[in-house]
Design a protein that fits this description.
alpha/beta; Dihydrodipicolinate Reductase, domain 2; Rossmann fold; 2 domains; 5-stranded mixed β-sheet
């Protein structure tokens, strides 16, 4: 399927790209509260309690183990829809009974002083729902990338965080890694001369046609999953924001698996000074 830039912005299965352009106006990934009310309370604590919402691969194999080594925060609680996971998590990470929640009673986390930050690690299609619950509970919020399915959902999270005066952070952690910071420095200092064109590619191999990555309503597909890395790489690699989508094409070689979402997406973005960015994700 090949479409021009005007139609591209209207295609639902490709709306992740227009989302990334519209909902991420700056390189920053953190929004501060509108007042100083929470700034004092959060800085008073030497070690912040974090609750993970969703206990899939990223939480189980990466976030929870990493939180055993952090200096200023620790794993304090979990939110899961699978009760059978709870005993193992409690044994492995020492989670207290009163810090275990499910998706139905997650709002009661508001009464738990041991949890300061809620980290949303469910599929993208569920980010807005549970991010808003966490923010309405008065907890500071970290939300995995991409922030949500569309601009409206992103704005709802931002508005809820502002209303409840809590911090919001989105997990574009790659922008803080040393190699990425070096590339961002190149975009600023231009050690090799003016940028003439820029490209970024990213891919993920996983699953056999099952799981959320193959479901449109949960935010599956190459563009929503790995495409945000390529879009952001073009932005921080150039130090500029794109002004238009020149072209985009989605395709699949395995329609039996990718019946709802894209397996591969390629696109071209134009930046303000005429530089063209080429992106591909699979």
């Amino acid at each position: 399927m090949s479409i021009n830039r005007r139609k591209f912005l209207k295609v639902g299965s490709l709306s992740g790209l227009s989302l990334s352009l519209g909902a991420l106006p700056s390189m920053a990934c953190t929004t501060a509260p509108s007042s100083d009310k929470n700034k004092t309370s959060i800085s008073d604590k030497k070690n912040l309690g974090v609750a993970l919402v969703g206990l899939g691969y990223y939480s189980t194999d990466l976030l929870a183990p990493a939180l055993q080594y952090t200096e200023h925060c620790h794993l304090a609680g979990i939110v899961t829809g699978t009760p059978s996971n709870v005993p193992e998590w409690q044994t492995r990470f020492g989670i207290k009974d009163q810090n275990v929640y499910n998706y139905e009673n997650m709002h009661t986390i508001a009464d738990n002083d041991e949890i300061d930050v809620v980290y949303i690690v469910v599929p993208t299609g569920l980010h807005a729902k549970y991010a808003n619950i966490a923010a309405n509970a008065g907890k500071h919020l970290c939300c995995e990338k991409p922030m949500a399915l569309n601009v409206e959902e992103c704005l709802s999270i931002i508005d809820t965080c502002k209303k409840n005066d809590v911090y919001l952070s989105v997990g574009y952690r790659v922008q803080h890694e040393p190699n990425t910071r070096t590339i961002m420095g190149y975009a600023k200092d231009l050690p090799y001369g003016p940028i003439e064109e820029i490209s970024a590619m990213a891919g993920y191999k996983g699953g056999g046609g099952t799981g959320w990555r193959f479901q449109k309503n949960l935010g599956g597909g190459a563009l929503y999953d790995m495409g945000v890395y390529t879009i952001n790489a073009l932005r921080y690699g150039s130090g500029m924001e794109p002004v238009r989508v020149l072209s985009a094409k989605s395709s699949t070689t395995r329609p039996e698996f990718f019946s709802e979402v894209d397996e591969t997406t390629e696109y071209q973005l134009e930046f303000a000074n005429g530089v063209i960015g080429y992106g591909k994700t699979v």
